């Protein structure tokens, strides 16, 4: 979720009127076409490619990297920091890219982000050749941070382009595109786990990096050029609005829920249920698949029935909290940990996170 396009920090990249009105003139509302234009289809393909590849790059480490890091003498705390630095630098970089998107250009930022990310993903695959200890840790941080910054550029540009191309259907479009985020989360862990189990540490990253690099010429050809208009107000003025601050807290909490599982869930499953690395990836499948399937429905409801958004946020957050109590389960509940229960809770958690996260973009957009 740290890359989720429902992030409010990316809103100042496009002129507010153009987001809400369609052509930017006061009081005008663009009619929603019954059929998508060719340009809109190309935008959807480009956005889907970045959602899919970014989530695969984010999630592929889960099943095997904590184990590999242990072999290199890295503690669980430092492993968690290697995972967490991705989200931190994604946040910081998107603030910078959002500010300078008008000067850089959305298409160039999108394509350049993909190109750099593909290269550093392949580079991550050769880190097993690096000596253990501080050198290995430093290289992991460096490559992971570069990957976060590059994908932040691409997704910030993608959010701006989507808001320009679909001003009246933002939540529906974002909900549908979350299918591809979910697919990336679905395919990343099991694919990474099985490639690691079959061919070793290098192959999962080389394979994925090549896929990302192949998307570069595709997007250079099909992605339309959109001019980004400078925002009239600052990001800080937006974020200090009480409603936006509350929604930002919700997004931060949900992203933390996903991030919490990355360094811990695979080790827990390996120790508790003695599953091989390939099957550990399948455990992640329950969370990602349910999120991918439920997101389009939540996006459609958010667009068609605006009054439901706050209830989706409230009940989604409550259910997510309950899921994390049962995930272990918490010792105070005195429930025995079982694999089927773990997978069931992950499935429910995927749906609840979708309920909480998808409506946030449109809510912050209305505030802007």
TrEMBL record:
Domain Major facilitator superfamily (MFS) profile: 43-368
Residue ranges with Basic and acidic residues bias: 1-10
Annotated transmembrane regions: 41-61, 81-101, 108-127, 133-157, 169-191, 203-223, 244-261, 281-301, 308-327, 339-362
Signal sequence region: none
Pfam families for this protein: MFS_1 (PF07690)
Alphabetical keyword list: Membrane, Transmembrane, Transmembrane helix, Transport
Subcellular location(s) per record: Cytoplasmic vesicle, Secretory vesicle, Synaptic vesicle membrane
Region (Disordered): 1-30
Keyword Transmembrane helix: yes
Main location: membrane
Record membrane topology: Multi-pass membrane protein
PANTHER family per UniProt: GH10249P (PTHR23506), MFS-TYPE TRANSPORTER SLC18B1 (PTHR23506:SF26)
Name of this protein: MFS-type transporter SLC18B1 isoform X5
Species of provenance: Vicugna pacos (Alpaca)
């Amino acid at each position: 979720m740290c890359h989720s396009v429902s992030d409010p920090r990316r809103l100042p990249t496009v002129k507010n009127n153009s987001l809400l009105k369609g052509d930017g003139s006061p009081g005008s509302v663009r009619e929603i076409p019954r059929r998508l234009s060719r340009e809109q289809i190309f935008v959807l393909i480009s956005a889907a490619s970045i959602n899919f590849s970014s989530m695969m790059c984010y999630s592929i480490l889960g099943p095997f990297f904590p184990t590999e890091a242990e072999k290199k003498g890295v503690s669980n705390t430092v492993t968690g920091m290697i995972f967490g630095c991705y989200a931190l630098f994604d946040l910081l970089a998107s603030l910078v890219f959002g500010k300078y998107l008008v000067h850089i250009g959305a298409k160039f930022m999108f394509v350049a982000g993909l190109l750099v990310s593909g290269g550093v993903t392949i580079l991550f695959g050769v880190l097993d050749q690096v000596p253990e200890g501080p050198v290995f840790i430093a290289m992991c941080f460096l490559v992971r941070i570069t990957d976060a910054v590059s994908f932040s550029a691409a997704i910030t540009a993608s959010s701006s382009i989507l808001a320009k191309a679909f001003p009246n259907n933002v939540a529906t479009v974002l909900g549908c595109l979350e299918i591809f985020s979910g697919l990336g989360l679905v395919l990343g862990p099991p694919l990474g786990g099985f490639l690691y189990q079959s061919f070793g540490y290098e192959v999962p990253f080389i394979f994925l990096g090549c896929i990302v690099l192949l998307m570069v010429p595709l997007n250079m050809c099909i992605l339309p050029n959109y001019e980004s208009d400078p925002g009239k107000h600052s990001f800080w003025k937006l974020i200090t609005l009480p409603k936006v601050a509350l929604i930002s807290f919700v997004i931060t909490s949900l992203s933390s829920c996903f991030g919490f599982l990355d360094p811990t869930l695979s080790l827990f499953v390996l120790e508790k249920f003695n599953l091989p690395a390939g099957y550990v990836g399948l455990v992640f499948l329950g969370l990602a698949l349910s999120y991918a399937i439920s997101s389009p429905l939540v996006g459609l409801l958010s667009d068609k029935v605006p009054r439901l958004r706050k209830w989706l946020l409230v009940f989604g957050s409550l259910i997510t909290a309950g899921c994390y109590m049962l995930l272990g389960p918490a010792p105070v509940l005195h429930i025995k940990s079982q694999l089927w229960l773990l997978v069931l809770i992950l499935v429910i958690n995927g749906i609840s996170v979708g309920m909480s996260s998808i409506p946030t973009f449109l809510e912050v957009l209305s505030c802007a």
